[in-house]
Amino acid sequence: MVDLIVASGASRYNIESWDIDLAYGTQDGENDFCLTLHRNLLIDKNSIIRVDGSDIGGIVDERTTKKETSTGGSVSYKGRTWSGMLANKILSPDAGQDHLKVSGATTQVLRNLISRIGLAGVFMVDPSPGSVNYRFDRYTDAYTGITKMLASSGMRLKFQSRQDQTFISAAAIVDNTDVIDSDLIDFTSTKTYRRVNHLIGMGEGELKNRVIVHYYANEKGEVSQKQTLFGIDEITQTYDYSNAKADELNEKTKEKLKELQGEGSIEVTVLDGATYEVGDLVTGRDNRTGVTVKAPIVKKIIKADHGLVSVEYQAGDDGKHGAGSLSGNAEFGSPSTIIQAGNGLTLIGNTLNADVTSADLLAVSKKADDAAKTASDFGEQIGQAQQAAKAAIQEVAGTAPIKTTKTGAKVTVSLGEVTQAESGSMSPADKKKLDGIDDKANNYSLPVASDKALGGVRPDGTSITISAQGVISAHATGPGNASSYPVGSVITNTNGANPASVYGGTWRQLPSLGAFTWERTK
């Protein structure tokens, strides 16, 4: 919750409980706000409102009183935002000039423009990067003109209130590439393959004497007077710019066609805690199809309910990158915002974390039990195979000594050395029969286990291990294993169980008023 600062003349006071609906960015008459105060508070006309450290603010232009017998009624105020105050000023050409032109350091140009429109007492100009060289459209409003001027140099307009002053400056446009990722968040993107690529500009004159120019865009959106797209790929429109001479018509037609180029649209719910500014760029990336769509932030909507502020962003068509909409919440004064993203998953900022839950450990334990049973079954099969091999050889060898060796899951059964003089020896004829048996006939090896056939299994030594005594143990892997909790790590649980039984190591319990808290010491 944040306070609203109200300044009227020399008086200044803070209001804790307030509602507001404020929007700025697009030149569609929405650079304004509606403010509602609780507890029957009243403020003077022409009051300046602002939230310290933010771009929230403007001037009160009207008051509406609503009387209701059931609720007692309410008082609301409407006014212009900082951008709305600029939009109500016109940048006129100097006497005898067709256009207003500016050039020089960005900071000084902004100071000159703010002074020119009579708002030097409202806005202070902060130091800004770079320089500009720009020719304004005739009689354009100051917000549109300054925004386009800065955009031509890769910058955007910035407002900020601090120390009871409102500062205006230019900042570099931020390209938030791959912030919106299909692996982390759901979104819908539309890729536009064809836009207007042939624009016919029509200037001064009538009928056959009218000035006409043609401009074309190629597949990359690059504009020139050379046509590269024909037939079904060519999309043509006319641009009526009456009374423009040839030079100006060429410039404006080319500029207009550039504005009509774009990549598509994005519709997405923005992560809590994400912040953008009007003029910044956002990109939606679909890892499955490889499609990316870029769109600029063109509108910022700020709302407050009893002083709790949320922000909604819209990425629309500035004619340059595409169209679409973004929405989300970013609360002021919140140190961190966590979005629950499913069982065992949390999304903090742009980082996705996975936690091993009791259900996960239960699943691992079940897999270990299944593996132990499988191993036991194979052990029984091996024993049966040994007995069968001994019986088969005994049947042929008679009283000859039997020798059995075992290596892992492999069992070898063979005859001992036999001589005619040895007690219980076989006849030379029988010995000759055995000598003809292939050596590999006495070997038995289990096949490798698969999802379709039983066979030999082998513990991986990490998640499943077998001790020297033949005890099978299952261990949690990933973010929940002991290596993820080095000495000095602290974790909490609600059942009071010592984490050593799950993660290994030595742990001691720490004093705690809430959940059980444990620290690893070894």
What does the radius of gyration come to? 39 Å
Proportion of residues in extended strands: 35-45%
Average of the residue pLDDT scores: 75
Distance between the termini: 44 Å
Structure summary, number of beta strands: 36
Helical region count?
7
Look at the helices and sheets and give the structural class: alpha+beta
User: Mind summarizing the main beta sheet?
Assistant: 11 strands, mixed
The stretches of 5 or more residues where confidence is low (pLDDT under 50) are 318-364, 418-423
Helix content: 10-25%
- The coarse overall form would be flat
List keywords for this structure.
522 residues; flat; alpha+beta; eleven-stranded mixed sheet; 18% helix; 36 strands
Summarize the structure.
This protein has 522 residues and is α+β, with helices and mostly antiparallel strands. 18% of the residues lie in helices and 37% in strands.
Protein described:
With 522 residues, this protein is an alpha+beta fold. It has seven helices and 36 strands.
List the helices and strands and how they pair.
Blueprint (H helix, E strand, L loop, with lengths): L3 E5 L2 E5 L2 E7 L7 E6 L10 E3 L6 E10 L7 E8 H6 L2 E2 L9 E5 H11 L6 E3 L5 E5 L4 E2 H10 L3 E8 L2 E8 L2 E7 L5 E5 L6 E5 L9 E6 L5 E2 L11 E5 L5 H14 L4 E7 L10 E6 L4 E15 L2 E8 L9 E4 L9 E3 L4 E4 L2 E4 L3 H40 L4 E6 L2 E6 L12 H8 L7 E3 L18 E3 L5 E3 L15 E4 L6 H4 L3 E4 L5 E5 L2
